[in-house]
Amino acid sequence: MRPAGRGGGLLAAAAMAAALAMASLAGGCASSGPPAPAGPRLDRELLPYLLPPSSGFPATADAELLRRVDAAFQSELLDGDVAGAEAAAEAALAVEASFAPADVLRAQARLAAGDLAGAREGVEPLIARYPGYSAAELIAAHAAELAGDAAAAYASYRRIQSALPLALEKAGELHAPAVAAVAAKVSEALARSRLDEARERLATLTEWAPQDLATLEASMAVARAGGDARAELQAVRGLLASARSGDEALLERRGELELEVGQPSAAIEVFEALARRHPDEPHRAEQVELAKFRWRVANLPGDVRRLVEAPELSRADFAVLLYWLVPGVRASVVSEAHIATDILDHPRRQEIMRVVNLQLIDVDETLRRFNPDGRVHRAQALRALLRVLQRAQPQPSCVAPIAGNPSPSREAACSAGAACGFLPEAADCLPEAGISGAEAADWIRRAAALLP
Known about the structure:
Elements: H1 6-30, H2 63-77, H3 82-95, H4 100-112, H5 116-129, H6 134-146, H7 150-159, H8 165-191, H9 195-208, H10 213-225, H11 229-240, H12 248-260, H13 264-277, H14 282-298, H15 302-305, H16 315-325, H17 349-357, H18 378-390, H19 410-419, H20 437-450
Helix pairs in contact: 1-2, 1-3, 2-3, 2-4, 3-4, 4-5, 4-6, 5-6, 6-7, 7-8, 8-9, 8-10, 9-10, 10-11, 11-12, 12-13, 13-14, 16-17, 16-20, 18-19, 18-20
């Protein structure tokens, strides 16, 4: 776009005048035949949405060309001559092909003619180039509104609401349907596994209505789909602080997420509240017990806590978890000392010696070796926890089949482990496989829950 100037203005005026004269001449030649049908007329209900094309235009423009476009807006469009207004816009664009105010005038004429798609297409590139161009935004907004696109209409009205009272009013009217429309698009994107698209839609919702229920629910759904526990927890907390405060399923989900992100004290509070409401539901008490166990884990020394996250445990690692997590192991009195010669210089000597002296894990009787760095097998871990239960008074009923036998066979240990709830069923035992820190901690928790 060239800057305004006297010479440029005169040339533009002459060119536009010539174009208009040609349009007039063509009309005159046509008048010798039958009268041409009247073109579309202006619907007076559109008047509030029509601004002079120069309104809000932020760039430098040819002053004479701009004056002529605004004059055509006043004398042609507002006077009801929609076809004449579009012809004037085309004449201006013949002079300067990228003259944005002329594009606005043409879009206004298309809107008046009922061509909603053409009106929107005509101004959308201008809005991208000149954010806040009020004459263009108003056309885009009202055309989208008439087309039933509440979200696009609201977006345009919202961008100019500080400059135009009408836009402010319309944005208020369209806020709720626009938020609902974008929330529906988030759900649709998630249903089609388009997570990036859902996140883009959610960003719009968050900008428009960060605390609306629709936004919080969409945030929760997107976070869950993306495996983002912290973001999901934030959304759940927001929902519980709003009108969904009595939603027990949502409250339970909050407890699960608090555990997942490492806030067991908050989870205890949530699950205890649910247990008080439903004292006859056993799984509520189990949730409280799980949260309290996680709290104990969270308060372990850092080097011990990291073992719970280990993908596979050594015999020394498992001994350390037994020492710190099984009730009574640290405080128990040992009546008979058992020595393992290969742990004397081991950094975990104290924990290993206590577990060995309590005969929870066996040593090689011939060589008196513990083999601390060897992988602990699942059968060995099961036997250790079954020994803990066998020493309880009274013993849990699940260890009755192996009563008096601290070293049951692998098959018997697997069956007892399933009966005590460590395994879904004996077939899931995999006795020679290793065990992760998380799985070992869960077995220890279940064993502790069976102790009197």
